[in-house]
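Usage example:
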Amino acid sequence: MATKSLLARKDDLANTETQLEYLSNGIFANGELPTFKDKIAETGNFPLKPRKLEILQINLGYMCNQVCSHCHVDAGPDRKEIMTRETMQQCLEVIKKTGAHTLDLTGGAPEMNPDFRWFVEEASKAGIKDFIVRSNLTIIRANKKYYDLPEFFKKHNVHVVSSMPYYKREKTDKQRGDGVFDKSIKALQMLNDVGYGKEGSSLRLDLVYNPSGAYLPSDQEALERDFKEALKEDFNIDFHNLFAITNLPISRFLEYLIASENYEDYMYALVEAYNPAAVENVMCTNTISISWDGWLYDCDFNQMLGLKVASKVKHISEYNEDLLQNRNIIISQHCYGCTAGAGSSCQGTVA
Amino acid sequence: MQKTYYDPADLRKFGSITEWSEELGNKFFEYYGKVFEEGALSAREKSLIALAVSHVVHCPYCIDAYTKDGLQRGITKEEMMEAVHAGAAIQSGATLVHGVQMMNKYNKLSM
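Running the assembly step on the lines above writes:
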C-alpha cells in the first residue's frame, strides 16, 4: 500500500492531463468502446446540462491523515493544499444566497483545515437545510484535539457521512491502511454515544461503501442490510443509510487499475453497466463543486482532473448561479463511473 | 486466430453468440437472466451455487465471472472457498460412489 500521494511520488499520473489522455486513448480511441459523449448522445443527453442546483460541495483541502489506495483526490498527509479563511469568506457569501438546499464539506479530511470549526460555525448560521461533513472517521481518533468532534458535529446539527469500505477488518485495512478498521469502529461508537445514527434520531449518520477492488458495487439496499446486521451484531453500532459509490477510474484508483492490469476489464464493466436512467440524475446535474482555492467544477471528480466549469464564471469570487446554470457539463470516460448500474453519486445510487 | 483455446477477453464477447442464431441466443440469455434473479433462493445464494458449478464444469470464464459477482455482492472468500468445496465434494463423491458399481461387478465375477 502506498504511503505517499502520486504527487509526492512524482508519478506520471499526478499530472491530470496524463490521466485524461489515458481515459481517451486505447479502447476508446480505437472504437472498441464508445466514448461517454457518443453514449449519452444516443439518448439525446449531449450536451449534458444542469438541472436545478441542489448541492454545493466544498473541498476544504487535500490534506488527509490517510493514504487510501483508491483515493480519487490523491489526498494524504503530504498534500498541503488547504482552503484559506479568505476563500471560506467568499464561500459563506455564496452559501447565504444560494438556492441549493445542501451544503457538503469534503476533503481530504476537512477537519484538518485549521479554520474548519470556524467555517462550520459560520456556515451553520446560514440556515441551509442539510449540512453534510464527509468524515473519514479515523480523524476522530487520530489526535486528542479531534476527540470532541462528535459533540461539535452535534452542536451544529451536522449530517455526518462517513466512509466505511466494509464491515470486516481485512478489506477495510487493505484499502485504507492498518488499524483503520478498529479506529473507524471506535469513532462510530463515539458518534452513536452522542446520539448519531440512532433510529428516529435527527442526528444523521450515513456510511459510504465503495468496493475494495476492480469491481462494481452491487445492490445498495442489500449491502445496507448486510452492513447493519454485521455492525449491530459485532459492535452494537447503528447508522441510518448506506451509500454505495462506484470507484471512478481516476487518480490513485486509476493507478491501481493500470498496475493490476484491470483497467480494460473495469472500463468494459462500466460501459456494459451503462444505465441511461442514471444519466438523468447524475450528480453533476444538481451540484457545484468548489475547490480549496475557490475554482468551480461540475463535480469533485472533474475537480481532481482539473476540468473547471465551462462557464464565464469560473471562480467563487465571481459566483453567479444563473450564469452557471447555463453551462454545458464537461465529460470524459470517467463519467461512466456515475452511470453504471443503479448509478453513483456522493449521495449513493441515483436510478 | 489465437494460439490458445481460452482468452479471458472472449468472455466479453459472450453476447455475440446470438449473431449466428438469434432466436436461440436471445432465449438463452433471457432464461439465464431470469434464473439469477431473486426468487425462492436469493441472488446471493444462486451466485455461490453458480461459483461451485463453475468449478465442477471447469469453466474458466464462469469462474472469473462468479468470483467477481461474489465480490460485488460482498460474499467473503471463506464463503466462496466453501462453495468450491461443496462442488468438489459432490464431484469426488460422484467418482467414489461408482466404487460401489466396481465392488458389485467384482463380487459378481468372483467365485
